[in-house]
Structure formats: C-alpha cells, structure tokens
Fold this sequence. Notes:
This protein has 383 residues and is of the alpha/beta class. The chain folds into two domains: 4-122 and 363-369, Enolase-like, N-terminal domain (Enolase-like, domain 1), CATH 3.30.390.10; 125-350, TIM Barrel (Alpha-Beta Barrel), CATH 3.20.20.120. 37% of the residues lie in helices and 20% in strands. It has helices at residues 63-78, 86-96, 101-119, 146-158, 174-188, 204-217, 231-240, 254-262, 273-276, 279-292, 305-315, 363-369, and strands at residues 5-22, 27-40, 45-51, 134-136, 139-141, 164-168, 193-197, 221-223, 244-247, 268-271, 295-298, 344-345, 348-350. A seven-stranded parallel β-sheet has the order 5-6-7-8-9-10-11. The protein has a three-stranded antiparallel β-sheet with strand order 1-2-3. Strands 4-13-12 form a three-stranded antiparallel β-sheet, with no helix packed on it. β8 (221-223), α7 and β9 form a beta-alpha-beta unit. The longest helix is centred in the first third of the chain and has 19 residues, at 101-119. The two termini are 39 Å apart. [(2S)-5-oxo-2,5-dihydrofuran-2-yl]acetic acid is lined by residues 53, 140, 142, 197, 199, 248, 299-300, 302, 326. Residues 197, 199, 223-224, 248, 270 line the site of manganese (II) ion (MN).
Amino acid sequence: MTTTIDHIESIIIDVPTVRGHVLSMTTMMTQSVVLVRVRFSDGSAGWGEGASIGGLSYGPESVESIKLAIDSYIAPVLMGRDADRIAAASGLMARAVKGNHAARAAVETALWDGLARRLGVPVAQLFGGRIHDRLPVAWTLASGNSETDIAEAERMLSERRHRDFKLKIGKRKVKEDLAHVAAIARAVGDRGTIRVDVNQAWSLTEARYGVRGLQEIGCVLIEQPVPRERLDGLRALTQGYEIAIMADEVLQGPADAMRVAAERAADVFAVKVCQSGGLMPAAEVIAIARAAGIGLYGGTMLESGLGTAAAVQLFATVPELAWGTELFGPLLLTEEILAEPLRYGDFSVAVPDGPGIGTVPDPDKVKFYRRDRPGSLMAVGTA
Length: 383
Ligand SMILES: O=C(O)C[C@H]1C=CC(=O)O1
Ligand SMILES: [Mn+2]
C-alpha cells in the first residue's frame, strides 16, 4: 500500500534573538523561519524548516518568499505523490521551482523526516549512519561592540559552550574591523580559535588588506570576503594567502560547488542545507568538496532547533568536518521551540538518537510565535 503526501503546511514564526545580531548587511533583533509540516496518508508526519537572514539582505530568499513558493508552487506538484520516493519528489520540485532552495529544502527535509519515522530510524541512517555522536559548535560574536563581544566570549568559554568564535565584520572600515578582531583574539588567546565572516562586504582591494591583516592577527578562517559574483576574487585570495578562505553565499547548490571546486576558488565549503536545496543536495556539495580536497564546515542559516536538528543528522555522517560546525541557531533565540531541545555542552551538540530528525516542535510554542496567530503584530499586511 503506497503512502502518499496528503497535506503540506508552512508556518512562519518570528522569535526574538537574545541580543542584536549585527552583520555587514543587516542587524537582526528577531529571527524568522518557516516551519513545514507534511502529513502522509498513513497518519505519519514529517517536519522541515526553511530559513534566511535579514529578509532579502543575505540571500535570494525571505520567509515570505519561502512560504509563497511552498504554498503556491511546491505543494500543488507534490500532493498525492509517493511519500517514500524522495528522489522523485525532489525531481518534481526542481522542475516546478527554479532556485528557491530554502523552500525546497524545507519540504525535502520533511519528506526525509517522515520516511525515517515510518522506518523507525534516525535520518542519519538514510545517509549511511552516524559517524559522530557529537559535533563541535562555533559561536558567532556579533553584538557590534568589541567589549561586549569579549565578555560574551569569556562567558562561552567559562560555560564550556563554545571555544571557536566567528566574528561578523565588513560593516566598518577594514582598519576598524582589524582592530576589533585583534582585541578579541588577544582576549581569547590560545583558549579558542578566531574566524571571521565578511558576508560579501569587501572589494578585492579591501580584501587583500583585510586578509593580510587577519592572517597577522592569527585568524584561522575567512568566510566569503568578496561578493558571490567575484569568483575570480575569491580564487585570488585563496591562491594568494596561507589563511583558509571559505565559500558561503557563492554556494547555492551542487552546481556552484562544482564551479568553485573546479576553479580552486576556496579552501573550505560552508555547507548549508537551506542554501544547497535540501539534505540530499547538501550531501552532494559535501561529496564534491571531499573529492576536490576542499575542507568542510557545517554552516547554518540561523535555523531554529528544527532545521538545526536536520543538519545535525546529515553532518553526523560526514567523516571529517575539519572546520567543525556553527549549528548554534536555537541558542541565538530567546525561546526554545522544540519539545525535546538539542543538547549543547562541552563545546558541541549531541546528535539526537530518536527516529527522524530526532525531535519535534512544541505545538504551544509554534502557536505562540506563528506570524498568522490572531492579534500578531507581525501579521499586519501579510494576511
Ligand atoms: O554564515 C552566515 O553568514 C549566516 C549565519 C551564520 C552565523 C551567523 O551569525 O550568520
Ligand atoms: Mn557566512
């Protein structure tokens, strides 16, 4: 008896962040994500999540575009389809929806969650089984103020929650950013590592000065220093300096991964389920990096615990995440939306044991934070 896809519901939730999160192109006071629940004909269900950052300021999708793509274009082509044939469903989505990778990832993840639950195994099992029981988790220091960031780093170190720190830069002049990073690097010392994420903000000229300065400070990794269109610039920086250069926004799926690898334009790939287009496309990005000898880092789109749990399932199966992960999304939110939260500690996150992605949302939290709840301030104009 075939199990079919019977109902797809997409829910925008808006949750405050624990502090302002200052990136080069936006400052976040809340994080908005799209939770997707797929119900199947046998009564089983699967959950997925699509996320982006700062509306449309980080990349090509926003929660509103993710919800629209799912409701108007993805759901109609998947209704009634065989729930266990995820490769076929992904093919239907790819034909009906170009781009919109976070929207496709949210639905594809829910299909994996549902299938794994019907089989009674973790999603990791469907990708070869876990190798790791825990994954290292970096923290992003992005208060916008050096002293605040230093105090935060001290707290993360003393709580043994994080010791790899990613600093958001690119909003200030290069010289000011270098002073900011140097101050934090001095404070952290050899208790942890310092990386930066420029979020595409530098020109190639600024990047040459920035990369040289960061290398001298002892930074170990520089993420997406130049715009995603400047693959020549990313390659010049990768080839021209010892410090590792990481591709992020330029990686919108396996085809981009192939292009960056062929050009030798990065030392490391930030693998993101939403940017890749789902768990299977993210696994393809990982395969390309491994074949090309490019380092791997488990990236985040600041998903809630739900999307983070899905990413944990996939990254647990990767033999070597040489640069760890940044799967801290739920820790940036003032509220835990999962019924069973992910377990963080000892500078890492535990891979959940249960079936599927290993957890489900707390229905009361979803009800409280959903944008379309009666009386929600955010609902104005989105009806
Ligand atoms: O990599 C990005 O730019 C997206 C995200 C990851 C951590 C963070 O603070 O922002
Ligand atoms: Mn990034």
